[in-house]
Design a protein that fits this description.
Blueprint: H1 2-14, H2 18-29, H3 38-47, H4 52-88, H5 92-114, H6 120-129, H7 134-169, H8 171-191
Helix pairs in contact: 1-3, 2-4, 3-4, 3-7, 4-6, 4-7, 5-6, 5-7
């Protein structure tokens, strides 16, 4: 089953509509969707290493633009939409913890947490709910998401084919590690 899923992702990554799927996933992940864009970005880069930098730009821009939706949810509709999203991810305690340090460390929080597996939507919604400076939010988000997606692109561009071979030979291990990191991000969000 994992091999079929992997093969499907590789076909999707090489399809003419793959970029639009990447745009959509990167956009919605920044405000409410649970699956990170890396799920598409990685196979897309493996399918076409020459496009690694273009794909990193697309993922970055789409994620930051989607971050504005998360910001708007927090700013205009925290009680109706933002709080239920954060409750869904068991992140209200993180929201409360972030509130106390956001005034002084907000930009650094956005930069650091936006690079991690911790769901970026926590940062976008919190930034909006706390009416954090929009320009600072935009710049910090651009830095954070650029570092994350360009690091993925650089590693895959540099190591390309050996990474693909490693993934294909050890698909179960790679999938398990990815799921552990994804779940770890949610667990870290809950308990850190």
């Amino acid at each position: 089953m994992l091999q079929r899923l992997y093969d499907w992702m590789m076909r999707l990554a090489a399809s003419p509509n793959a970029i639009w799927w990447l745009v959509a996933v990167a956009f919605v992940e920044s405000s409410f969707f649970p699956i990170p864009p890396d799920v598409l970005l990685i196979p897309m880069i493996l399918a076409a290493r020459r496009d690694a930098w273009k794909l990193a730009i697309i993922a970055t821009v789409s994620s930051v633009v989607g971050g504005f939706l998360g910001y708007a949810i927090g700013y205009y509709a925290f009680g109706y939409i933002g709080e239920p999203i954060l409750n869904f991810y068991h992140a209200m305690d993180k929201y409360e913890a972030l509130k106390t340090s956001f005034d002084e460390w907000g930009a650094w929080i956005i930069v650091l947490k936006g690079m991690t597996p911790i769901p970026y939507k926590l940062i976008t919604i919190t930034s909006g709910a706390l009416h954090f400076n929009l320009a600072t939010f935009a710049i910090a988000s651009l830095i954070s998401r650029s570092i994350r997606f360009f690091l993925v692109a650089a590693l895959l561009w540099w190591f390309g084919e050996p990474v693909r071979i490693f993934i294909e030979k050890r698909l179960t291990l790679v999938t398990t590690l990815f799921v552990v990191l994804l779940i770890g991000g949610f667990v870290a969000l809950r308990y850190i």
